Amino acid sequence: MSKQKTKIKKKILTQENIPIFKRLIKDYIKPYTNYLIVAFVLMLFVALSTAALAYGMKHILDEIFGQKNADALPIIAGVVFIIFFVKGTSTYGQTVVMNYVGQRIIADFQRQMFQRLVHSDLTFFHNNATGSLISRFTNDVTLLRAAVSTAITGAGRDFLSVVFLVGVMFHEDWILASISFFVFPIAILPIARFGKKLRKVSTGSQEIVGKLATLLNQVFQGIRHVKAYSMEDYEQKRADGIITELYKLNHKVIRARAAAHPIMECLGGLAIVVVILYGGYEIIEGTRTQGSFFAFVTALLLAYEPMKKLASLNSDLQEGIAAAERVFSVLDRKSDIVNMPNAKYLEIKQGTINFDNVSFAYNTHKNALKNLSINLKGGKMTALVGPSGGGKSTILNLIPRFYDIQEGNISIDGQFIKDVTLHSLRENIALVSQEISLFDDTIRANIAYGRLSASEEDIIQASIEAAAHEFIEKLPHGYDTIIGEHGVKLSGGQRQRISIARAMLKNAPILLLDEATSALDTESERKVQEALNKLIGGRTTLVIAHRLSTIVQADHIYVIDQGQVLEEGNHASLIAQNGLYARLSNLQSTEDEQRKLVA
Ligand SMILES: Nc1ncnc2c1ncn2[C@@H]1O[C@H](COP(=O)(O)OP(=O)(O)O)[C@@H](O)[C@H]1O
Ligand SMILES: [Mg+2]
Fold this sequence. Notes:
Number of strands: 10
Strand content: 5-15%
CATH class of the largest domain: Mainly Alpha
Bound molecules: adenosine-5'-diphosphate, magnesium ion
Helix content: 55-70%
Order of helices and strands: HHHHHHHHHHHEEEHEEHEHHHHEHEEEHH
Largest sheet: 6 strands, mixed
Low-confidence stretches: 1-12
Mean pLDDT: 86
CATH superfamily of the largest domain: ABC transporter type 1, transmembrane domain
């Protein structure tokens, strides 16, 4: 028997929920205590005026219909109006205050999540689909707000209303009140059960919302490819599947929620039936006035709505807790790549970069780099070549600490990169990659991205050096032209020159170029290459290039294969070694010859 009892109790407020509750209250609700006190006072007015209406019923009926007292008529009318006025204005005030607090709480969550996410490691973003992260921001936060405001309004307005109305009922007839309220607790028990089910379904539905958002994101961004491969129907089917799954689950949520109602409805009806039978009998017998009977019935009917709300409070809370859990899981994620406790400021002298016996794996089962040692001389150009998947980009991405290595050391001018602040490290590095790095903003804003304080002259100077000024001037709005998401309104070569202008403006001593020219046609490649040569001048540069012609001039070349250095030297010495580099070089010069013939 007692075992059964604790089981039911657990379902209403489970052990695992308590820390989530505490955290919600302490960190998100408490800052608004003042507002909540105001809201509570207003709720108290709502509850009191509601109870007053029920109580007043007795006087209306007995004075006017019973005694036919004409003098009481204007007084009663006045009082009733005042009661409605108080009820109306306090309901308005309470709604406004509660919504204000709710929106502020949403904003607090969104700010914190954004801050958390924008500082997260790349690995986190590789492992979490964009759509599900967006869903955290929109759906989960909205569910949370709904739960918080329903819980507070429930605990305030609805609970107080029920208490006062029950007070009126007991005042009128305690036996009748006890009978009708015997049924209410029985109604609570089955309703509590829906809570847990709802929470599970709600979690599932949020996951699907995330999946849908991810799909939409992919399809709309890759719409060109969807069309080129005639994949509209395929994508339609995928979307259909997710949409169907979503509405089915949502329907389940609604059903679980709605199930609370018929139970309340039936039990409420039962209570009314008992009251009519017993109370009616008393009136007929003359032991009770009609006024007292109607006051009781009014109180019972008025108590019915808030009671129903209190009964479904649990399911709202369960949805909110599920959402809170997901939001907290984002907020609690610790970044692996952070400043050491006493991280120092990176001081660049020559800008020499050293990889000393570095081993690195993206995931535990396969090493992307194995005991790799390379040296990038300060102010010189070093190139990485080799077959695709060999680990070149990985090497490059380790320098700004996008990932942390498992073994060995990476240092810049003798300072281990793990010991310096991330900010000072990244401030000294400019990155130009094949990956599109432009935002849907003006050209000016895109160029100034790494140095927001840059003056107009600096921006133009950088564009001139990046061979971008000329084409920018010809655009309809010049530097104020909005370039579309990922710069879709520009050609590949133009995009790349804007990226170079950005790097130029940043003027960092270390320059990382990952296949910066490989997506371009020969003509744009030549222009971009010229711009790059200006950018490289005097900086420590690491170049990854598919086309060997662009790295012939490198001071030192490493041939990377399977995460290791296969060969090294300058162009001439590597050709002389007659290994992989010489073979790649041969292959490409024949290709170039052929291309020339075709052209
Ligand atoms: N984000 C990642 N997560 C897991 N594995 C990765 C990731 N990026 C690259 N790899 C793997 O690491 C290896 C080296 O890749 P990469 O450095 O990109 O090669 P390259 O630039 O020489 O073509 C490949 O086997 C690739 O599959
Ligand atoms: Mg690569």
